[in-house]
Amino acid sequence: MIKGSKICGVSDLDTLNFIINHPYPPQFIGFICNYKKSSRYVEIEKLNKLVKVDKQKSNFVAVLVKPDGDILEKIKHLPFDYYQIYDCTPEEIKEIKQKYNKKIITALTIKDETDVQKYHSFSDITDIFLFDSKGYEKSMAFDHALIKKIKFNKPLMLAGNIQADDNLENYKKIADIIDISGGLETSGLKDKSKIDIFLNKVKNET
Hints:
By secondary structure, this protein is an alpha/beta fold. It has one domain: Aldolase class I (TIM Barrel, Alpha-Beta Barrel). Helices cover 27% and strands 21% of the residues. The strands form 2 sheets. The chain has an 8-stranded parallel β-barrel with strand order 1-2-3-4-5-6-7-8. A two-stranded antiparallel sheet has the order 9-10. It is globular and about 40 Å long. The N and C termini lie close together (8 Å).
């Protein structure tokens, strides 16, 4: 059952304010903090200014790909509720969680069944599981059937080439939270009309 949504890759104040002040804002808003290959990457100076807004009903998420101590120290004072972490071991995530006292979204990139089964190792330290494609900065899909029959002990967030006009019925039996980024863009930039369509659709499903 879909209980909420996450809009990822927000990088400008105008878009952020539109999302936060929407009648049906997402539960989560994600910012790309250290993955420079992404067109949605936000430099630390800009990030400092961007997240100073009143986030109201949304949680702010720092999206981190194998973060080092440098970036973790630079963002530790920022108002992030969750750290979404890719490419770290359970031990590394546990250390980050304890040191910075943040809730954790463990991001697992999926190609086959072997990738899915890695979730067992993170069950004790994660607050939310995110299943994503191997695309990282590119919007790619993966076979959602790989996770359909698994009973997870934590909320499940689903990403990977989801589009604003997708039929959310297709995800109801799989995910608790829909995570969307590229699907809300036109020519590489967040599109408010697509954001509006998506948030209204999620509201109708929850």
